[in-house]
Amino acid sequence: MTPVDLRLYGIIDPDRAAGRDPVDLVRQAVAGGTTLIQYRDKRADGRRLVELARALKEALQNTGVPLVINDRVDIALAAGADGVHLGQDDMHPADARFLLGERAIIGLTIKTPEQADALVRMPVDYSCIGGVFGTMSKHNPSAPIGIDGLAAIAVRARTATRAPLGAIAGIDASNVQAVVEAGADGIAVISALFMAPDPRAEAQRLRSIVDKSLASRSSLP
To answer: Which domains does the chain have, with CATH numbers?
Structure first.
């Protein structure tokens, strides 16, 4: 298992960048304390995906922050990314592991307690639970699971795996503390970070809340 720092997981999507350069936004977010970057783009063709993924990977050089690609194992391979993030309908994590190798980062979205239980058989380095709250960043036919749903799934996931758990969808500074208290080791954010007027300052704010919340959780008896 490859260690992954999920404390502040930034998901860059050109459709949620307020018309700004995604590469520059990622640089700002990382300067503010983002610990992992995912590139997600549902509309670009394969060539554009590879070009931007390579540009993002170059921008992250010497930062220690990995780049994973949403859904597309082929794009991750072509661009030399650090790994891939998969949904329940994407390539099976075992097949992605076979193609990407043992050192690649493989993440998985889980939405139900049953999917959390299945983590015991999955060669993944982290999982993200969601969607926790409503969001405009992605169409989701399922209702948000809320804090109670997050907590329930997190308990099941902890039984199945020691890999870190993130939370995703509708997360911002107003609810980060509750998300971490419910069992998340970090937050995956899109609009709250990359639609912010100052992504570096917002990353600093979110990271500070996450770190303080994790410290408070670890101090509980």
So the answer is: 8-218 (3.20.20.70)
pTM above 0.85, yes or no: yes
Relative to beta strand 186-189, strand 36-39 is: unpaired
- Tokens 């783009």: give the residue: 41
**For residue 156, what pLDDT band results from cuts at 50, 70 and 90?**
very high
| Helical residues (DSSP H) of the chain, grouped into ranges | 22-31, 46-59, 73-79, 93-100, 113-117, 146-160, 176-181, 191-194, 199-218
**Mean pLDDT on 100-106:** 97
Q: Please state the three-class secondary structure of 91-148 as a single string.
A: CCHHHHHHHHCCCCEEEEEECCHHHHHHHHHCCCCEEEEECCCCCCCCCCCCCCCHHH
